[in-house]
């Protein structure tokens, strides 16, 4: 009887300890759960609800339910189509360019060149620079009488007006984006390169492989998870481009909507036109587009990303 009583007490003690540890854990994660519920999950649910309404924060009481009208109107909205086209072209131009350049830079700074620490810092500095400051700098560089056109004039080339030209406004933002973000992806590629076992390259050298063969048969296959990560992050970032287009066009998306992006149009619709219901609908359409593109990439890379 005494032994059974001791066992019961031990079980009760263990149960109390388990409950105490569980409560302690929940108390520690409670601030995070509360913050993410208040500032992320709650607003997402609220935004999804008002995407089915004609809604303005200036007069919330006057909002009315319109069902799928906001989503249906998107397909007949010429500005939305232009913004979607611009964002797609921007993504197609920026993503492969910045990833290729980032990989080349990573290979350079991972080699045995002298002063590679300096080059790592130099390539990464633009990444930590304020995008607003970068946009202002590029506005001065690409002015009609700016440095870029002055250099072109030395070769007898008449430079365009860049940000004020429908043909060159979006490509100019693309160049700005590549320059300012390539360092971030370079660092991630560099981490992936340094994680590749040196024994693989040594074995390839024994088999007589040259540098090009080692790159395509060892480096690239081993970097597939890193490439997938960078590709997804880069794609999401390009489809959410806002600050460059806002600063360059002063929030108008001009000239003639040449720099109008999805997020800029969402911002204008919600905070300038105060049509928050329509803006929320666009935001969720953008979310679906990014989700689909991410899943397509995941299917392409399959289990080889592990």
Describe the structure.
A two-stranded antiparallel sheet has the order 1-2. It has helices at residues 2-50, 69-74, 78-109, 116-128, 131-141, 147-154, 169-194, 198-206, 211-222, 224-239, 243-249, 262-272, 276-301, and strands spanning 53-54, 64-65. The longest helix is centred in the first third of the chain and has 49 residues, at 2-50. It is flat and about 70 Å long. Helix 4 (116-128) packs across helix 7 and helix 5 (131-141) packs across helix 11. Helices cover 74% and strands 1% of the residues. It folds into two domains: 2-50; 75-305, MetI-like (MetI-like fold). The protein is mainly α and 306 residues long.
Shape: flat
Q: Give a short account of the largest sheet.
A: 2 strands, antiparallel
- Nearest-angstrom radius of gyration? 26 Å
Number of strands: 2
Stretches where pLDDT is under 50 for at least 5 consecutive residues are none
The H-level CATH homologous superfamily of the largest domain, spelled out, is MetI-like
Order of strands, main sheet, comes to 1-2
Average of pLDDT? 87
Please tally the helical runs, counting DSSP H or I stretches of 4 or more residues. 13
Organism: Caldanaerobacter subterraneus subsp. pacificus DSM 12653
Subcellular location: Cell membrane
Keywords: Cell membrane, Membrane, Sugar transport, Transmembrane, Transmembrane helix, Transport
Protein name: ABC-type sugar transport system, permease component
């Amino acid at each position: 009887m005494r032994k059974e009583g001791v066992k019961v007490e031990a079980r009760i003690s263990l149960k109390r300890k388990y409950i105490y540890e569980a409560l302690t854990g929940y108390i520690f994660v409670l601030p995070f759960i509360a913050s993410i519920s208040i500032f992320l999950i709650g607003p997402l649910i609220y935004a999804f609800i008002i995407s089915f309404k004609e809604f303005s924060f200036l007069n919330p009481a006057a909002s009315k339910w319109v069902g799928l009208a906001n989503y249906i109107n998107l397909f007949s909205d010429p500005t939305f189509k232009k913004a979607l086209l611009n964002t797609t072209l921007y993504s197609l131009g920026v993503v492969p360019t910045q990833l290729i350049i980032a990989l080349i830079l990573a290979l350079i700074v991972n080699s045995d060149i002298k002063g590679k620490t300096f080059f790592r810092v130099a390539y990464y500095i633009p990444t930590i620079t304020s995008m607003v400051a970068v946009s202002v700098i590029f506005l001065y560089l690409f002015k009609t009488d700016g440095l870029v056109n002055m250099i072109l004039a030395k070769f007898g080339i008449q430079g365009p007006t860049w940000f004020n030209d429908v043909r060159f406004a979006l490509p100019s933002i693309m160049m700005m984006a590549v320059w300012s973000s390539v360092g971030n992806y370079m660092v991630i590629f560099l981490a992936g390169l340094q994680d590749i076992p040196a024994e693989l390259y040594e074995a390839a050298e024994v088999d007589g492989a040259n540098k090009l063969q080692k790159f395509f048969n060892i480096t690239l296959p081993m970097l597939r998870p890193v490439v997938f990560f960078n590709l997804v992050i880069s794609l999401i970032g390009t489809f959410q481009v806002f600050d460059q287009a806002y600063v360059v066009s002063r929030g108008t998306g001009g000239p003639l909507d040449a720099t109008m992006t999805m997020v800029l149009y969402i911002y204008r619709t919600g905070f300038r036109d105060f049509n928050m219901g329509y803006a929320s609908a666009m935001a969720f359409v953008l979310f679906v587009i990014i989700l689909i593109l991410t899943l397509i990439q995941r299917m392409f890379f399959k289990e080889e990303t592990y």
